[in-house]
Fold:
Amino acid sequence: MSGDPIIDVRDLVVGFGARTVLNGVSFDVQRGEIFGFVGGSGSGKSVLLRTIIGLIPRRAGTIEVLGTRLDQASDEQRQGVERRWGVLFQQGALFSSLTALQNVQFPMREYLDLPQRLMDEMAAAKLDMVGFRRADHHKMPSELSGGMTKRVALARALALDPDLVFLDEPTSGLDPISAGDFDTLIRTLQRTLGLTVFMITHDLESLHTIADRVGALADGRVVATGSIADMLASDHPWVSTYFRGRRASALTSRLANSEP
Amino acid sequence: MAAPPSLSARAVPDGVELAAEGAWTVVHARSLDTLVDKAARETPPDRPLTIALHHITALDTYGAWLIERLVRARRDASGGTRLDGLPERYQSLYDEIRETEHDPASAPERRSSLAAHVEALGQGTVRFGQQLLAFTAMLGAIFASLGRALADPRSFRFTSTVHHLDRVCWQAVPIMMLITFLIGAIIAQQGFFHFRKFGADAYVVDMVGILVLREIGVLIVAIMIAGRSGSAYTAELGSMKMREEIDALRTMGRDPMDVLILPRIVALVIALPILTFLGAMSALYGGGLVAWAYGGMSPDIYIERLREAVSFTHFQVGMIKAPFMALVIGAVACTQGLAVKGSAESLGLETTASVVKSIFLVIVLDGLFAVFFASVDM
Structure:
């Protein structure tokens, strides 16, 4: 199903005051792939994500998500698209006055008119899918650890069976084992549910293990897109430092050795 | 959107066949739920059931679970249940759903209402005791911190105190003066309106003077400060607590009492008498303007009457109360701030509690002072 971009961003310009953060960003994400975005701290990755999901106004350019031009869409069309995507925020952004189970049910309650029994069953199923313990269903977000918070947030992002999920640094703040589990989880869910995943990350290991394609953001524009191999071959200074730096080479050799 | 889902039953030689068609997705979850429940009730348990899924056009976790729910509902049926023709691309989704746990943990138990009420009463009483203890502990900790600061004046956070003094005192001056001005004016106007009936116009000045200097000035300012600065203290300390700033301070060997709380309390204790004085002057001025414009009393006479009516004692009584009220407001605000737990809701609750409690305690304290001053003839 190629040639059917789920996200299509063209010449996007975003800035605050006198500072231009994104200057002519263009890329697309195809249906059913995991697209990873990398960039140095402060390069505007999060700004890009927040602009696509409509939290930050853009100065110029077009954003098309799930076949709808978000910049021209009416409120109703926008809501239609928002219903079909899920967002995992970096800190989880769980509603602190609701329990884990209620957090997952929130989108169902807002968008659908379902019997309580079905909502309970589906929320429990989503939480089980992301590996959240049943005993913690009625805990408040403040009682959960970072990893558990992310899992609940992912379950909430998946609550309405979205076509597209945005993940903002899904593995940051997790220990390497949990991060690895989380990567596998995203991969499995993506395969079973047929999701398209747009992911911002700093985690080279995540990129190596789960990303189908990678985009690199530097100096306010996308300097490279393609597979990990393309990234390794890129001669852009920032990209080559990032993917072939000391930490990266240690990882690459480790991954190469571990492969059968 | 895809075709709406349906589930139609027909008899086949070896039992019943349910043919599922259309989009079994979240959009149609409501009607699917009804369809599946109806099918589960109506299919005879003793005959074999085949669920034919050949014509499903779309399936997601909701649809997959509802099919699975139907299968599970017939788990004890003697006839048996069979799925037929699930499209290949949905197989892994269906398998995943079949393996997941669908029972939410049961909500924490609710006791019967009478027992719950008795328990709530008991817990309320215990909480009241704990809060009283926390407040007393805070007062003690403030004095201990003050003692440390006096013993080693260089450890006192002077800059921080000045910063807070700017916020709670200087920046509060305009609004405090405006409000007390209006209160003074209103008291004078009401006084003239009612006293005129008895020809007692002249005593309005006594009333305004004594009331403002002894009670209203300090009370209004204290209540305003509790709402304006007490709530800010609670919210600040609460969000610092939420973001572990207070823990960070502690691990660096700095006592939050010395760094955060003492400067705030000292600033408040200095600010409240100043604001009370300014407020009282502003109220007397407001009363004077009304006396002139509404009561027909010239400013000279107003000041002359005021001089006769009020003594220095009245002024003293108001001013003595101010720092104590400041201490109570500050101690309550800081206690509540440190009681904030992780959630935004608890921050809101504690801020509300801070304002309500400090206003309540200010009024109680005012009453106690009234008894005290009466017994010492002030």
